[in-house]
Amino acid sequence: MRRRGFGTAAVTALGAVLVATGCGPQTVQMSPPETDGTTTEVCSDLVAELPDTLMEAERAEVQPESEAMAAWGDPPISLRCGVPRPNDLQPDSLLEEVNGVAWLPQPEDDPTMFTAVGHEAYVELQVPSGYGAPAEALTTVSDLISEHIPPLPDGSL
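^ that's the sequence the OP posted. Answer follows.
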């Protein structure tokens, strides 16, 4: 597995973040992941701790309601917890490590979707390119994943 670091110091050095918020409450349509009881519990804990603002975008209402999903702004930054293991995840996949959490960027050359791997629940985070570098979102979510979703045994993805 190849990893490249993305530490806290790099977060502040990365480019400007564009504001993408609407004028009023927004509803984001999403497809909830199919989760089992254990995954639902850890995902619910994670989503409950997510901030009201991410990358200067305000949290939006998600439809259908789910304890495993969250969204912010317009176009929406979206998070789904408990998604299936990514098909593109291979032993030699290029992973970005953010505060100890490994992320699979997709597409590899200009990613807008990142899937946290190596934990009991996979977490998918989509950050539209209009928001700029996703470092702030990845850092915030990584810290919460470390706190709420147990890691898999070493070497497991």
